[in-house]
Specification:
The protein is an alpha+beta fold. The protein folds into 2 domains: 204 residues, Cytochrome Bc1 Complex, Chain A, domain 1 (2-Layer Sandwich); 197 residues, Cytochrome Bc1 Complex, Chain A, domain 1 (2-Layer Sandwich), CATH 3.30.830. Strands 1-2-6-3-5-4 form a 6-stranded mixed β-sheet, with helices on both faces. It has a 6-stranded mixed β-sheet with strand order 9-10-8-11-7-12, with helices on both faces. Helix 4 packs parallel to helix 9 and helix 10 packs across helix 16. The N and C termini lie far apart (126 Å).
Length: 489
């Protein structure tokens, strides 16, 4: 064996060794940022959003379907286009109660069964509390249970029971609110004072509470009103979720095909506010805080300066670091928060400002509210404010399809405003072209020294009366109950 081992060793020594080939590793170049200047900022872009697909179901019923891939739930909203203006001309107690109580129970499902359905199937079903132009029935349901959800929605739309016990609960809640809760709440009094001081009792928007109508409400009233709505209303159905449009249309046709009436929704009534400046005030002797609200007219939704005013409203009081909040909260330190809201409409629109302050600071609050309005009217928004508003709107737009709920809210507005997705996109793009001068002109037109103001102030008269008189405006003192019931014209 030794000779074999020696032979192998000799051969190994004679054989040339092959060198292993090792590939050279690529040189890694590490990019270092240029810290000599600020980095380039790439502005966000608007994502594409799908248009609603308008599909006929039967005559009198039209479906508007928005497929949104990947969302877990489907939101379905049924609009029955027959509202308060088609009955009394305003939203009456009976009309409000009809929408309020319609989703409680049906002829074939008790209130308990509907509640169990919502819990077990992770769903929500609800109806509107009444409106000037329409009633709504809604369901939000997991996509795999859409069939079951549409069964429940149709049952509530067609066959509400209006249980006597729930009618009694509705009446008791109305009485308790108007006679106890509201008259002891400064914020409720201030809101009612502002709203009913702005809208006259003879307008569709100025409906006063009617306790006699509450007391006299019957199940027969509700059933008759429901039958009128179901038998005479054109119907629109908005469906948003991960669905097949043609399949949804067939589901709707099977369930709702015998309902719906050809026609158009009634026209929304108009309203022209008074052009004066005045203060409505209520004495709440035991209140330490005072509620200060002010309302002004604003552009209608079809006005040329809608986009500019929306930006002005946002700068003034539409976010945490808005001008009025920075003034009264951060600088003066007299409130936990102040804000403003532009409530746009097709026939009436308002700009509302509100804040709660210690009673001894009412005049300071009112003076600073006016000062911030004057600054916007004189100088408009800054470039940085316009940029921030633009970024916020782009962020809102790009989050529309995150959930069925956010998508449904967006497309409900499109449907009811009679516009496609290009309209709000166009407004965001128009905002990017606004200049401070544009916003100054709009602020001057709507918020300047000649614009109307209705102040609603609630607090202890012994503390706030002298402060209100210092504002040099007409003052009308109103009793709390009259403020809630609207009895002060």
């Amino acid at each position: 064996m030794s000779w074999l081992l020696l032979s192998l060793l000799a051969s190994a020594q004679e054989a040339p060794m092959e060198e292993a080939t090792v590939d050279a590793e690529p040189e890694v170049v590490v990019a270092t940022p240029d810290r000599s200047r600020l980095p380039d900022v790439t502005p966000p872009t608007l994502l594409p959003l799908p248009q609603m697909q308008e599909l006929p179901v039967v005559e009198g019923i039209t479906a508007y379907i928005v497929p949104v891939e990947g969302v877990r739930k489907v939101d379905v909203t049924v609009y029955l286009h027959r509202g308060g203006v088609d009955f009394e001309g305003y939203v009456s107690v009976a009309h409000e109660a009809n929408g309020w109580l319609q989703d409680i129970a049906t002829g074939s499902r008790s209130a308990g069964e509907i509640a169990v359905y919502e819990d077990y199937w992770d769903s929500d079903v609800w109806t509107s509390s009444g409106g000037l132009l329409r009633q709504t029935v809604n369901v939000s349901v997991p996509a795999e249970d859409l069939d079951r959800g549409l069964d429940l929605l149709t049952d509530i739309m067609v066959d509400p029971k209006y249980p006597g016990r729930e009618i009694k609960v509705f009446k008791n809640e109305r009485f308790r609110y108007y006679m106890d809760e509201a008259v002891n709440s400064p914020s409720a009094i201030a809101s009612s004072l502002r709203d009913m001081g702005w809208y006259t009792a003879d307008s569709a928007y100025g409906t006063r509470p009617d306790l006699d109508a509450v007391a006299g409400l019957t199940r027969g009233d509700l059933r008759a009103r429901h039958a009128d709505i179901l038998g005479n209303a054109p119907i629109s159905v908005l469906v948003v979720g991960d669905v097949n449009p043609q399949e949804v249309v067939e589901m709707l046709r099977v369930r709702m095909g015998e309902y719906g009436t050809a026609g158009e929704e009634s026209e929304r009534p108009g309203f022209s506010p008074a052009g004066d400046r005045r203060i409505l005030a209520v004495d709440m002797p035991d209140a330490e805080q005072a509620s200060v609200l002010v309302r002004m007219p604003a552009p209608l939704l079809d006005a040329n300066d809608r986009v500019a005013f929306s930006a002005v409203s946002w700068a003034y009081g539409g976010h945490f670091m808005s001008r009025i909040n920075a003034n009264l909260r951060e600088d003066k330190g007299i409130t936990y928060g102040a804000g403003a809201r532009y409530r746009g409409g097709w026939k009436t629109a308002t700009f509302d400002i509100g804040v709660d302050v210690p009673a001894e600071h009412v005049q300071v609050a009112m003076t600073e509210i006016e000062a911030e309005l004057a600054k916007l009217a004189a100088n408009g928004m800054t470039d940085s404010e316009l940029s921030a508003k633009s970024l916020e709107d782009i962020g809102w737009w790009n989050s529309v399809l995150q959930t069925s709920d956010s998508a449904s809210s967006f497309y409900q507005s499109r449907l009811l405003d009679g516009e496609d997705v290009n309209a709000p996109r166009g407004r965001i793009e128009a905002l990017q072209g606004l200049t401070p001068a544009d916003t100054q002109a709009t602020a001057q037109a709507w918020l300047g020294e000649d614009s109307a103001r209705l102040w609603a102030v609630v607090g202890p008269r012994s503390v706030i009366e002298e402060q209100l008189e210092a504002m040099n405006l007409p003052i009308q003192w109103v009793e709390p109950s009259d403020a809630i019931m609207g009895n002060f014209e």
